Amino acid sequence: MDIRHLQYFLEVARHSSFTKAAESLYITQPTISKMVRNLEEEIGVELFERVGKRITLTDAGWVLFSQAEVMVKSFENMKIRLADLMELKRGKIRIGLPPMVGASFFPKVIGKFCEQYPGIELELLEVGSKKVEADVASGMLDSGVVLLPTDEALFESYSFVNEQIRVVVHPTHPLAEQQEVSLIELAQERFLLFHEDFSLHNRIIDECVRVGFHPAVMYKSSQWDFLSEMVAANVGITLLPQTICRELDPRRFHSLALVNPTIRWHLGMIWRKNAYLSYATREWIRFTKESLPHMKSKASSSE
């Protein structure tokens, strides 16, 4: 049995005539008669009582009629919804954005995307890069932004920002007189860092250890603005990307370049390699790749 058997059966039942049903469907009467006969043979019951040229539904026919209407309607709704998805009229995308990234790069991009595709729902999860990577890998998120490099065996990606991390200090701090500082010079400082689920946390710790000291971390947060306010209260120093440092009030903060070594904030959009991507997700990736100031890197397309 396929959906056409049910559609033809319903048409005959509504018209109480094979001839009229065939005319409404633009097919021949022998074709529709054969379809209904095949349906009766398949389910093992007579669906129509034929008295001369007049036909009526049998008891079994009435049972099938009520169920077939629901099934055909569901099938038609399914086709409509699939068409909507393919034409990007509806859908849902689950996206992971670290807090710094979401606030700095995505409000305008998300606004334009929602304006162009009002039927697509964006579900945003604000968590650290490590959590984003894990959730994209598990399929809980469709795509997300992480600190690069990432596992190329698991993810496809494109890069959209690659800039230096800067040191942020209180204006009265001795380092406020300098334009740059080497990492080893920060060995005695009190650090204010992001939580461990942010990849930047581990990267800073690892670099400190590599140059010869383990930083004294006074406080950890998931919000860059809270960390900067702690610096403003002269609790300690923090390390933030150039993009964030540009937003800081120079009367309340001083940022200086970190050298020997530099630590880079290299961000990319990722999605699972060799996994099914919904039409909406594919469009999100294409749209953001064109909208964000992406870098030339080993990027791959979802298409």
From TrEMBL:
Cellular component terms per the entry's GO annotation: cytosol
Per UniProt, residues of the HTH lysR-type domain are 1-58
Signal peptide from the UniProt entry? none
Single GO MF annotation: DNA binding
InterPro entries linked to this entry: HTH-type_LysR_regulators, LysR_HTH_N, LysR_subst-bd, WH-like_DNA-bd_sf, WH_DNA-bd_sf
Record flagged with keyword Transcription regulation: yes
What highest taxon heads this organism's lineage?
Bacteria
State the UniProt keywords alphabetically. Answer: DNA-binding, Transcription, Transcription regulation
A Pfam entry, by short name: LysR_substrate
Entry annotated with the keyword Transcription: yes
Entry's family note: Belongs to the LysR transcriptional regulatory family.
NCBIfam families reported for this sequence: trans_act_CidR
Know the name of this protein? Answer: Putative HTH-type transcriptional regulator YwbI
Q: From what organism does this protein derive?
A: Brevibacillus parabrevis
GN (gene name): ywbI_2
